[in-house]
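User: I'm curious whether this sequence folds into something compact or stays loose and floppy. Could you predict its structure so I can see for myself?
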Amino acid sequence: MKHVSILVPETAVVEAVADPHYMFKAVNQFLKVSGKPELFHVQLVGLTKEVRLNSRLFSVHTDMLLEDVKETDLIFVPALSGDMETALEANKDFVPWMVKQYSKGAELASLCIGAFLLASTGLLNGKKCSTHWNAANDFRNRFPEVELVDGSIITEEQGIYSSGGANSYWNLLLYLVEKYTDRDTAILASKYFAIDIDRESQSAFMMFKGQKDHEDVEIKKAQEFIEANYQDKITVDQLADICLTGRRSFERRFKKATNNTVVEYLQRVKIEAAKRHFESSRKNINEVMFDVGYTDTKAFRTIFKKITGLTPIEYRNKYNKQVA
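Assistant: Here's the prediction. I'll summarize afterward.
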């Protein structure tokens, strides 16, 4: 019997507590129906017997207090909500317990921005991690020792798992079901919960807002120039001149401030504009390509798929019902 401990932190997203509980309880039923013994002993674990969530709208009654769980096999760290500094402070007592359980052989899995609480343990330092794309900049600033993987649905390293944003944690749940049971059971669960079992990227859902959460005023000027003139041919030398600095110094500062090279940033701004065209207009692929400053069809398609995980046609058909 595998012991599954689902943490119930203060400010947790209630669905990220309920969904893994539902998944592993359902898998027990699938196993039972097929004549196999139930595999998972699932418990909600908290600092108190009752945890009020979503501005006290929901009340979660835990099965065990944290201090009473001496050993477990798999720990889920659900997504948190609200101000992250406040959330981490309110839930800091989970941290030494997670470290202790990991040292005793337990595996850890964060769901969405539960990665912040997991990273607070220090166990992710030097390891890969995924979180919601919208929280990526904040995560990098707080935990520079962690290798954040942009756009990833699932990461796994040395018994520590993480999932991407929002509902992508269902793919991590399926991944763990398959690991602990078998492929057939995971497929059954995917059909039961209507989940695409092998989705690997959250890139199609990402919105690039420009990474301006830094203090380099001159680099912000360059970013604003790119965003206002992305249709035109922009050179690195031109941007360096705007910032009144040499090219090499500018490129170094730009990368440090935005976590992108100048070329990567320009590409992401162009593709974000293309996405908006595909979502809201009836323009064809070539029209959109020219609108955002590309003239090479192959290059445009290649970069679009690299950033979004979809071809331009796939993206348009997914998000624009006018052309479906």
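Summary: The chain is about 45% helix and 15% strand. The chain has two domains: 2-205, 217-323.
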